[in-house]
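Input/output pair, single chain:
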Amino acid sequence: MSFFKEFKEFATKGNVIDLAVGVVIGAAFGKIVNALVENIIMPLVGILIGGFDFKTWMIKVGTAEVKYGIFIQVFLEFIVIAFAIFLVIKTINRFKKKEEAAPAAPAGPTTEEKLLMEIRDAIKQKNV
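Output:
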């Protein structure tokens, strides 16, 4: 029975749940970026370079088809996702820096420190 209890504790830890939420949101975000690249960016890039459709770019080697155009499209999707994540992380870090409070001013000297400073000053005056 302890095995199941240990598994339950593991599965309900905050980090595991946060990771699961991140994976689900990441998958949905990936679909959005895929649609953006496939339906908006790649057709525009195709028009700019002469009306080509990247999906049709391939090389035939014997009976095999090497579809490097699809690779180019997926690589561009990766670049867009990486850039979007970079912007999100940069924004989050900017908010975190604002939330961090300025360091508190150092506290004044304690009573003991004041007494020690007075003793030091008195010794200095006798030696001068």
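The radius of gyration is 31 Å. Residues 14-48 form the longest helix (35 residues).
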